[in-house]
Write a structure and sequence with these properties.
The chain has a single domain, classed as 6 Propeller (Neuraminidase), CATH 2.120.10. 9% of the residues lie in helices and 39% in strands. α2 packs across α3. The radius of gyration is 22 Å and the shape is globular. The two termini are 19 Å apart.
Length: 368
């Protein structure tokens, strides 16, 4: 894979563009009692301006009460409501992957740890359910939440995906994200032997076919669970953190990797120069904003205590476009680095128009 570097050294440097930003808490007016969002290990996905939450558990580690309800959050009104369900819901479970595909008005739930469906509830499905402890099963099922009718009826429809191909082993706490027609699954706690994985699988959401473990190259992340995957740019995924095994001990990671979905190549990001150092974290959230930056939020810093990560990290995998930089400067939200970058981009545009080389480089090179 070619290095993910700017074409000109006077462009912004992706590896130096990690930012900490301020966070604001806002209350939600809840329409249900008890609060459907007061769960652990659940999932969430956005379809347009709607955010849907599913599953999770209540109670302590030794006495988990798994859930399979769906809640809806309206970000504009900050209200939460219970969703009416049509069709057969997934079993009660937690620690699954959840993502969405807005073009199809669908959310997808993969794998997880929880209950096994009864024989009367099961359909003709290729999914497997393996018992890892008494009464707790890990699975590789894929369920689809169709959200297109929610605005008019307040209801969503569940269906199980009858997929084909070489599916991942049953697993939980894996990273799960989609880019256009494809969903990607990385790592997790795999099969009944509770092994950590670093394999990457791809699911075609339109044909419902699994790829098998992708033949990836480059600098592979170590085996781990509870990491996050987020979209970035046009063909990149960003993997951050997670929990790995160090002998018999568990340890959390503070590393970041980039995956090129067309070249099938991993790229390890050098973060050793970042000050303060990136916090190790797992069970965190990551997402892409409107201009392609990835934000990494929350999570725990160590498997052995409840210390929470305190910073929000912004990952930029390529220089901002002239349009996006200009909008940020015009809106008064640009940093001094953004303003400087805007100046460099305007100079490059002028050089391109005049077909002049970059005189700041040694030796000068043509504009690319």
């Amino acid at each position: 894979m070619p290095p993910l570097k700017p074409r000109c050294p006077h462009d912004p440097d992706p590896e130096n563009d990690f930012k900490s930003v301020q966070i604001e808490y806002q209350p939600a007016s809840l329409l249900t009692n008890p609060n459907p969002l007061h769960v652990c290990g659940g999932g969430a996905a956005a379809v347009g301006s709607d955010i849907f939450y599913f599953g999770g558990f209540l109670g302590t580690h030794g006495n988990r009460n798994f859930q399979n309800t769906v809640a809806h959050l309206n970000p504009s009104t900050r209200t939460v409501s219970q969703v009416n369900i049509v069709g057969s819901s997934p079993t009660r479970k937690a620690f699954f992957g959840m993502c969405s595909y807005e073009k199809l008005n669908e959310c997808y739930v993969f794998g997880g740890l929880g209950e096994r469906p009864s024989e009367t509830d099961r359909v003709q499905t290729p999914a497997s359910y393996l018992e890892i402890t008494r009464g707790r099963y890990v699975n590789n099922a894929v369920h689809v939440l169709v959200t297109g009718d929610y605005a008019s009826t307040g209801s969503c429809t569940w269906r199980e995906m009858l997929y084909t191909g070489d599916a991942p082993d049953p697993r939980y706490s894996s990273a799960f994200i989609n880019r256009d027609n494809f969903a990607y699954v990385f790592g997790g706690v795999c099969n009944s032997s509770v092994e950590f994985g670093n394999d990457l699988h791809r699911l075609n959401l339109r044909s419902a076919e699994w790829s098998g473990a992708l033949p990836v190259t480059g600098e592979l992340p170590s085996a781990r669970c509870r990491a996050s995957l987020a979209l970035s740019s046009t063909s990149l995924l960003v993997l951050c953190g997670g929990v790995g095994q160090n002998g018999t001990n568990l340890s959390s990671h503070n590393d970041i990797f980039i995956f090129h979905t067309e070249l099938l190549c991993w790229y390890g990001v050098n973060t050793s120069h970042i000050q303060p150092p990136l916090e190790a974290r797992f069970a965190h959230y990551s997402c892409q904003d409107l201009i392609g930056d990835v934000y990494i939020v929350g999570g725990r810093m160590s498997p052995n205590n409840n210390n929470q990560a305190t910073t929000i990290v912004r990952v930029r995998t390529e220089p901002l476009s002239l349009q996006n930089l200009a909008l940020q400067v015009y809106g008064g939200i640009a940093t001094s680095e953004d303003v400087e970058s805007l100046g460099h981009l305007i100079q490059r545009l002028a050089r391109k128009i005049r077909m002049e080389p970059c005189s700041s480089c040694s030796p000068p090179h043509a504009w690319m």
